[in-house]
Amino acid sequence: MDPTGTGPRACGGAAIEGVALERIAADLGTPCFVYSRAAIERKWREYDEALADIPHWICYAVKANSNLAIIDVLGRLGAGFDIVSGGELERVRAARAPAARVVFSGVGKRDDEMAAALEAGVGCFNVESVPELDRLAAIAAAAGKRAPVSLRVNPDIDARTHPYITTGLSENKFGIPAADVRGLYARAAAHPSLEVCGIDCHIGSQLAEIEPYLAALDRLLVLMDTLAGDGIRLAHLNLGGGLGIRYRNESPPPPAALAGAIAERLAGREIMLMLEPGRSIVGNAGVLLTRVEYLKHNGSKRFAVVDAAMNDLIRPALYDAWHDIVPVRPRDGVPEPYEIVGPVCESGDFLARARPLVLEPGDLLAVHSAGAYAFVMSSNYNTRPRAAEVMVDGDRYHVVRKRERVCELFAGESVLPADPVSG
Ligand SMILES: *Cc1c(COP(=O)(O)O)cnc(C)c1O
User: Is the Cβ atom of 150 under 6 angstroms away from ligand 1?
Assistant: First the structure.
């Protein structure tokens, strides 16, 4: 569900819930990310309600949007959290969500991150390799603790998505080959500092179909049955995240359809299902507000130079991603095809190409589907402060991250000491 246009429209301009986007832009300036609490909660509940009949645990993938307010809103609903770094663990704790609800994924966990996660008492480590398992066991032994582990299986399933976000093929860096899993569970089960609790996979992101999930699920169930024969009983099965959203004309299944299909396949099994959705919870719950600075023609092309850039939203440059761009106050007139570009010194700095729009300098635009993999991937390239983030809650809004100030960007830098005076 797109958050804009669902609330009252103040004087004809677009709104999120009950707050006009023009008001937010006037108060805080642009570029600015605006999220809808209601839209986030609605998506989370779609998963939760579709799984009501089976034991389940929905762990929001923090990397999709790690703002503390989003972690907090989901934590209040009872969500768990899938993290991929020690930094994300600190965010979850800063948002006062319990560490026991955290699962720790990622191929490159460092010693200090593992030790901190053990100390905090995370619910599960999703282990991705033999050396990682051995290292976790050693760290747990040294700390006098038992580490809860799940092994991330690489099910060798083609998720049929963009190659950069396909993660479940044997050629990808993720997970443990299915053929090695049995031996590794035996090793984990025998280690006094490890507690085997589950099995997991994550096959990619922006998936448009249910079938690859079911194929992965079937592989995991076969492995689980084999392990049960070895005397290793698993408490949970984690199918990861990855459900897609509609950016343009995609029609991925809604969370309830995916969850329902999985629940059906699991009927009669005593197992807790875990999912790690990120994009499908927050992706369409946010927009990036930006203002048109200049209109210009170069040769045959028309450019709208806006105040947001690839450093704010890198998805178009990185994945050739398409984001809908909608004027907050549409104008009458004949649409012209505009290249929507930012001020950054790269020709790859575009938000959209050949978009038919009626524009004037100063117009406010909403870049849609900017709730996931947007702010979190932003950078300070060209010494551009990162944008403010706002969460709308009914007819109020809250600044959940202040716009950065330029002085903060080089606060940790220094110039060299003075050169010695030569005689
Ligand atoms: C990125 C990631 C997710 C979330 O993926 P989405 O496409 O945002 O749902 C879940 N689990 C793991 C292990 C991930 O790396």
Answer: no
Q: What is the mean pLDDT of residues 134-148?
A: 98
**Ligand 1 binding pocket includes 277 (Cβ within 6 Å):** yes
Beta bridge partners of 236: 198, 272
Q: How far apart are CA 37 and CA 45, in angstroms?
A: 12
**272 near 235, Cβ under 8 Å?**
yes
Q: What is the DSSP letter of 230?
A: T
Please indicate whether residue 407 is annotated as part of the active site. Answer: no
CA distance 244 to 255: 9
pTM for the model stands at: 0.95
Give the whole-angstrom CA distance, residue 109 versus residue 113. Answer: 6
Tell me the per-residue pLDDT of 233-248, one tens digit each, with 9 for 90 and over. 999 999 999 999 999 9
Atom of ligand 1 nearest to the CA of 280: 9
The answer, yes or no, to whether any atom of ligand 1 lies below 6 A from the CB of 65, is no
Helix (H) or strand (E) holding 234: none
The β-bridge partners of 399 are: 390
Q: Structure tokens of 117?
A: 């996660």
Tokens of 24: 């937010």
H or E segment at 384? Answer: none
* Cα–Cα distance, 8 to 29 (Å, whole number): 22
Return the ligand 1 atom nearest residue 84 CA: 15
Copy the structure tokens of residue 133. 């398992």
